[in-house]
Amino acid sequence: MKRILPVALLALGLIAGGSWLLTQPSTSGGTITLPGAASAQDAASTPASDVVINDMYLGEADAPVEVIEYASFTCPHCANFHATAYDQLKANYIDTGKIKFTYREVYFDKFGMWASMIARCEPTKFFGISDILYDEQSDWARAGSDGAIADALRKIGLKSGIGQEQLDACLNDGDKLKALVGWYQENATRDAIEGTPTFLIDGQKYSNMSYEDFAAILDEKLGE
């Protein structure tokens, strides 16, 4: 399980390791200018304008059981869960209307935030893009320089059918970034999230587990 940091330390760590203000040439053409570190740092104490961050979920809104996953797009354990357990969970519990599955991002680093901004650029594509981010995590997250990682993420967005102009607007949305940091901090503090992946099943907290263990808990909750 990957341990999370308070958002103030996260912001300071990113500044120490290189500003969140990133202007890099893209091999796909154009320039990527990502929002600055000050936006994230201020989010710990300042409301994020009027930007509303919505929960992303799959399944029926009124399903008998709600599962909330707290995860990071840069977390290898999260990628492993999505590679080994998630598809079965989706087929047997989400798609059958048994559970509402909500995904909430946790931020360890600037790269996870950039990935989140790509995934949220087009809400209807969020889970499809999330699947690609996890499937290709070892490629884009290890692409090398900040510019190379940003470009790899940008290509994922383009491959997912997001237009270049819309994608650039999403990547440069400082208000959205600030709102995401505040949203993440509020969620993680309220639910006492200390690492990823963490699951809340009808409000009860669980750490990473196999599909078999997950199914046993869900079946008990569902009375099956």
UniProtKB/TrEMBL annotation:
Coiled coil spans: none
InterPro entries: Thioredoxin-like_fold (IPR012336), Thioredoxin-like_sf (IPR036249)
Domain Thioredoxin-like fold: 54-220
Pfam families membership: Thioredoxin_4
Signal peptide segment: none
Protein name: Thioredoxin-like fold domain-containing protein
Organism, scientific name: Puniceibacterium antarcticum
